UniProtKB/TrEMBL annotation:
This is Type II toxin-antitoxin system VapC family toxin. SUPFAM superfamilies: PIN domain-like (SSF88723). It comes from Leptospira langatensis. InterPro entries: PIN-like_dom_sf.
Amino acid sequence: MSGVLVDTSVWINHFRKSDPKLVELLHSGMVRRHPMIEGELSLGNFKNKGAFLTEYSQLLEVPTANHQEAMIFSERNSLAGHGIGWIDAHLLASCALGSARLYSADISLSKAAEKIGIGEI
């Protein structure tokens, strides 16, 4: 495994109350970043946002699936009708491209990741 992509939902929860699993992943150097998660976080309102985003930008990035790759991935993995959005589909496709796992607090997204074999560790 080449890392763990941590979904926005986990980060938001972590800002409210420390997530021991996320802390462990950070200390082990396993956390990866994705530009769409970075974008979502940049629109948030949380303490020390500037410093956090600077640190986040230093994490290794999973390969970012392009539009066509995400479309094909979504179709091949029957993602339609499972309660996830387009950004979620991009995150799943990117994880698959980068042999990464996805850690999410979003139940529908977590189930989709588990279904295709890239759910959290």
